[in-house]
Design a protein that fits this description.
This protein is of the alpha/beta class and 218 residues long. Helix content is 36%, strand content 28%. It has seven helices and nine strands; from the N terminus they run E-E-H-H-E-H-E-H-E-E-H-E-H-H-E-E. The chain has a seven-stranded mixed sheet, with helices on both faces. Helix 1 packs parallel to helix 4. The longest helix is centred in the first third of the chain and has 13 residues.
Length: 218
């Protein structure tokens, strides 16, 4: 069973060990809905520029970070799983991706805020955090004035109850991490309450809902 840890006053799910164990299978697994992924990446790229400093939280093996790094000045890719980052560093070295830095860090770690960013990204992460309010507030503090927070979050509060029952059962036996069953309206409200103005939304995929949100720091 997952363990809760205190991190600078933030209570988070310590699922690093879970993802360390799943890293090899995760990296080998193909993207299920490539069309939705490519549509989301197209929208992300429309907000990127060659002079930007960008941070991705929960980067996993870094594939998305490396895909987007070519469009920005510098990419910092962070994740709680050291094993995931090993795969990322190896791929970056192989692909000669030189403007990316991998950091072993949980979302919300204060060390990530040692410099300011033009864009902070979090894909398939917010629903895995226990204490997302504090993380969203810290993301706000990491950003430069008018900086952007770009995220995509499975809104599992919208799925049928039996899926939630199945996920909870999988958690008990260690086959799934902590999951927050957010709904799309609730997610948007939490982002706005953290000091953002939402400027774009979309669902990629539509079912199960992957809520895409671009929000500007205010």
């Amino acid at each position: 069973m997952d363990t809760l840890v205190a991190n600078g006053g933030l209570i988070m799910q310590d699922s690093a060990g879970f993802w360390d164990k799943k890293a090899s299978k995760y990296v080998a697994r193909p993207i299920k809905d490539m069309a939705s992924y490519e549509r989301a990446m197209e929208r992300v790229r429309s907000y990127l520029a060659s002079d930007q400093e960008v941070l991705e939280l929960g980067c996993g093996s870094g594939s998305t970070a490396m895909l987007l790094a070519k469009h920005v000045k510098h990419m910092t890719a962070s994740d709680a799983s050291a094993k995931m980052l090993e795969f990322g560093r190896a791929k970056a070295l192989k692909d000669h991706c030189e403007n990316i830095e991998f950091m072993h860090s949980r979302a919300g770690d204060t060390a990530l805020g040692e410099k300011s960013y033009d864009v902070v990204m979090a894909f398939n992460l917010i629903h895995l955090i226990k204490g997302e309010k504090r993380v969203l507030e810290q993301i706000h503090s990491f950003l430069k004035p008018d900086g952007l927070f770009i995220s995509k979050t499975p809104c599992l509060g919208e799925v049928a109850f039996y899926w939630r029952w199945l996920i909870n059962a999988m958690r008990v036996v260690g086959y799934a991490p902590y999951v927050n069953y957010l709904k799309q309206i609730e997610l948007g409200e939490k982002i706005e309450q953290a000091g953002f103005k939402i400027v774009e939304t979309g669902n990629y995929p539509a079912s199960p809902m992957g809520r895409f949100i671009v929000a500007r720091k205010v």
